[in-house]
Amino acid sequence: MSEGGSRTGDTGAAARLGLERALERACTWLAIGGGAVMLAFTAISVGSILSRTFFGSPLVGDFELTERGTAIAVFAMLPYCHLRGGNVVVDMFVGMFRPALRRALAVLGDVLFAIVAALMTWRLALGGINQYEFNDMSMMLQIPTWWMFVPLVASMALLTLVCVARAARGGKEFR
Predict the structure, then answer these.
(1) Is 175 exposed, middle or buried (0-12, 13-18, 19+ CB in 10 A)?
(2) How far is CA 21 from the centre of its chain?
(3) Is 172 exposed, middle or buried (0-12, 13-18, 19+ CB in 10 A)?
(4) Alpha-carbon distance values, 108 to 78, 82, 99 (Å)
(5) If residue 30 lies in a helix (H) or strand (E), which one and from where to where?
(6) In the chain, where does DSSP find H-type helix?
(7) How far is CA 82 from its chain centroid?
(8) Taking the chain (175 residues) in consecutive chunks of 10 residues, what is each chunk's mean pLDDT?
(9) What values do phi and psi take at 144, rounded to 5?
(10) Predicted structure pTM score
(11) Separation of alpha carbons 101 and 93, rounded Å
């Protein structure tokens, strides 16, 4: 018998658990990848500082690489952060409501967040296509700009799925 299933044939619950686990894994690996990107661009920044100190000139294009790498890393960590309930929440007034109302507000928040994340995914995808069509390049290194939209769109699409999954779970984060 597979884990999460029952003898009564509740395959829906087992499938949901499988999807939730896959979502957790995807978020975890994307966040780890974002951390690796951040470490790589931190090393580039340190290398540029050392180059400026010892050779009188920074690494060419260090700012471009750091700028793009930071955006990729932050977007890569967003799905994991929301999956675990790590986003900043202002709940000065919500705490005095009954648990059922708090859950309903959490679901509403996740639904609204899913809508915003889906809109951002769509607009980022269009932005990446636009950058590709116009062959936009970075100024110093002449790196095509469109490629950085690929991980951003993937991260936002995963965030959208996380918001939908949390709403389906009644606004509960994954633990």
Answers:
(1) exposed
(2) 17
(3) middle
(4) 19, 15, 14
(5) helix 11-55
(6) 11-55, 62-83, 99-133, 149-168
(7) 8
(8) 49 76 95 96 93 91 91 96 83 81 90 97 97 93 94 97 92 71
(9) -60, 135
(10) 0.84
(11) 12
